[in-house]
Every structure is written in structure tokens, then in C-alpha cells.
Design goal:
The protein is an alpha/beta fold. The chain is 30% helix and 17% strand. The structure holds S-adenosylmethionine and iron/sulfur cluster. S-adenosylmethionine (SAM) binds next to strand 3, strand 5 and helix 11.
């Protein structure tokens, strides 16, 4: 029996307390930086079942994990996702789990927000790259801005206090909306993070041409807002700024310009149950094989997770000039 005080500590002394779990590679959007127009999705039998996901997350939470983020693909298009929220939400009473969070494109929030709140979801991150309906459609290829705005309102109405917008800024595509997006966040009492585009998977544009650094975004914001850097952390890679006269925080996720590896506290599990020790490297362990070979043997699974700490790499080495650096799309990995 594995000691309940066991923890996940890697070779560099970093404690892993955060798991991002991708529960589907499918999505109702096809964002230009995330997916190709034509995508081949994984056969369903390769996906972890939701029961397997719940079992896996229990193992992590019994090994000291405090924060779980459910993501995808679009997690809210997975059937019975509310069952999963309920199961994982309950782990807060019996394990080290403190927060259950989700990243979504917002399209299904009108339907799910209240249930998610009741099932124990703590925080929601919602992607929003444009406030112009036509451009929103262009960037997401299929998305309707109005659905997402209604979804954001539904999340507020359901009582979620910690809502954060995520915006990937691309040169010539939406970099003229950097300030408008910040104002939208401030007016709605939300936080916002700006994300540098990462070279994950083949897409139909040259990433080097669309790349917009966090420093450029910050410079645009500094022209109109009074920002002060903050030492606030969510345990993740974001650097945060406060805005004078507002409670909203502005964050930057800058894998290229500000490497965040030395304080990395996280691992990811892909849709098919591959434990990825680093977003930008291929070091991984096939947890699905272990779960299916030894059903219900949680100690066996926990030992595999503990052993995986030996192969967590020191850091990633993204290079925007090479395309693609990592062949998996973000939707498989879980962004
Ligand atoms: N579908 C959900 C959504 O869009 O929020 C969750 C999954 S999505 C992969 C998670 C986050 O990754 C989103 O904020 C998205 O903007 C971001 N993302 C996707 N591909 C990216 C890329 N190549 N570079 C940077 N961010 C990316
Ligand atoms: Fe779907 Fe999210 Fe990828 Fe957009 S970023 S295609 S919403 S998974």
C-alpha cells in the first residue's frame, strides 16, 4: 500500500501539485492557432472513459495533487461531463485536492454553468480572442461570439467569482483588440491572460509571422492602462499585473519570451491517458495501458505516477521558427 503522505517530487526538486486533464480532443470550434481546418479525431475506444479519468484523478489527488484543470479539446462537448465534475468535486473532501477548474471556449456554458457550480467546479477560464462577431468566426472558423458572451454571463450568474479570459494574440489577426479585450474584462469584473502562440501541431499559417510577444502586448496596454506588476501567482506560468482603479488582473503566459520551467509544478494527461511530463517535450508514460492491464489497482497506478517523476525534463525548448516543433495539437495535449 502506498503511503498516503507520498508526494510527487521530480529530480530537480519541483513538487508536482497540478494536473491538467484533457478529456476529449474534439471541439465545436476550429481555432486557427489550435487546429487545422480538417482534423482527424481519435477513435473513441482510444479515449479514456470518464470512469478511467475519475480513477486516474483520484490517484493523483491521493499523491498530493491540489489543483486539477479539466480541459480538451472542448471539455463541455464530452457526454456526461457533469458526472465527472461531481466525482472529482467530491475528492476535495477526502484528498489533498483544493481546486477543480476548467478551461472552455464558453460555447456550452449557458447549458452547463449552474450545474458546474453545484458540482464543485471552482474556477472557469474562457477563451476569447475577439469581440467582433465576424472576426470571431474567422479565428474560430465555426464559433458564434454571441453564444460565448452569453456563456460568460451565465457563468457570472451562476456565482463563479474567479472567471478568467484567455486570449491568444496574433499579429495582423487580432493584435488591434488587445486593449478592447482588457476593457471588456475590466468592465465585467474578470481577469484576462494573454497567451503567446505556441508551435503545437500543424496549422495552416506560418506561426513565425503571426507570433506576437507578451512584451508587445504589454506595451500596447501600457499606452492606455496604468499597470503595476504583481507577485500574485496561481502556481502556474502566468505573470500578473494589477490595473489601477480595477480589481481585474492581467496575466501573461509567455513560453517563448519568459521561460517558466524552473517553477513548473504541473503535468498533463492527454485524451488517451498519456502522462506528459512537459508541454514542450515528448517524455511520457502510458497510464491507460496500466489502468487497462490492472483494473482497479490504484497502488499500481500510483507507483507508475511516482516513477514518472524521474523523467520530468528540466524544461522545454520551443522555437517559433521551426514548424511544428511538437506534432501534437494543443487539443490533444490539453491546453
Ligand atoms: N477548448 C477550450 C478553450 O479553447 O479554452 C480548452 C482547450 S484549449 C486547447 C486551451 C487554451 O489553449 C485556449 O485558451 C487556447 O486559446 C489555447 N491554445 C490552443 N492552441 C494554442 C497554441 N498553439 N498556442 C497558444 N495557445 C493555444
Ligand atoms: Fe477548440 Fe479550444 Fe482548440 Fe479553439 S482552442 S479549437 S476552442 S480546443
Amino acid at each position: 500500500m502506498i503511503d498516503s503522505k507520498s508526494q510527487l517530487i521530480d529530480r530537480y526538486g519541483r513538487k508536482v501539485t497540478y494536473v491538467r486533464m484533457s478529456i476529449t480532443d474534439r471541439c465545436d470550434f476550429r481555432c486557427v492557432y489550435c487546429m487545422d481546418e480538417e482534423m482527424t479525431f481519435m477513435p473513441r475506444e482510444q479515449l479514456l472513459t470518464l470512469e478511467e479519468v475519475a480513477f486516474l484523478l483520484r490517484a493523483f489527488c491521493e499523491l498530493g495533487v491540489e489543483n486539477i484543470r479539466i480541459t480538451g479539446g472542448e471539455p463541455l462537448v464530452r457526454r456526461n461531463v457533469d458526472w465527472l465534475f461531481e466525482q472529482v468535486g467530491k475528492l476535495k473532501q477526502t484528498t489533498s485536492l483544493k481546486e477543480l477548474n476548467i478551461t472552455t471556449n464558453g460555447s456550452q456554458l449557458v447549458k452547463y454553468a449552474q450545474g458546474m457550480k453545484d458540482e464543485g467546479v471552482d474556477r472557469i477560464n474562457i477563451s476569447l480572442d475577439s469581440l467582433k462577431p465576424e472576426r470571431f468566426k474567422e479565428l474560430t472558423r465555426t464559433g458564434e461570439l454571441n453564444n460565448v458572451l452569453a456563456g460568460i454571463q451565465a457563468a457570472k450568474d451562476a456565482g463563479f467569482e474567479k472567471i478568467k479570459l484567455n486570449a491568444v494574440i496574433m499579429k495582423g489577426r487580432n493584435d488591434d483588440e488587445i486593449v478592447d479585450l482588457a476593457h471588456f474584462a475590466i468592465e465585467n469584473g474578470l481577469d484576462i491572460s494573454y497567451i503567446e502562440e505556441m508551435p503545437l501541431g500543424q496549422v495552416s499559417h506560418e506561426r513565425e509571422e503571426s507570433y506576437c510577444s507578451s512584451d508587445e502586448v504589454l506595451a500596447a496596454l501600457n499606452n492606455t492602462l496604468e499597470l503595476a506588476s504583481s507577485d500574485m501567482t496561481t502556481g502556474g506560468p502566468s505573470r500578473y499585473y494589477t490595473v489601477k482603479g480595477s480589481k481585474s488582473k492581467i496575466g501573461f503566459i509567455s513560453p517563448h519570451s519568459h521561460n517558466f520551467c524552473e517553477s513548473c509544478n504541473r503535468v498533463r494527461v492527454t485524451t488517451e491517458g498519456r502522462l506528459l511530463l512537459c508541454l514542450g517535450q515528448e517524455h511520457s508514460v502510458d497510464l491507460r495501458a496500466i489502468i487497462r492491464a490492472h483494473p482497479n489497482n490504484i497502488d499500481r497506478l500510483k507507483q507508475a505516477i511516482i516513477d514518472s517523476m524521474k523523467i520530468k525534463p528540466e524544461g522545454h525548448d520551443f522555437n517559433i521558427k521551426e514548424q511544428p516543433v511538437i506534432f501534437r495539437h494543443m487539443s490533444v495535449t490539453g491546453g
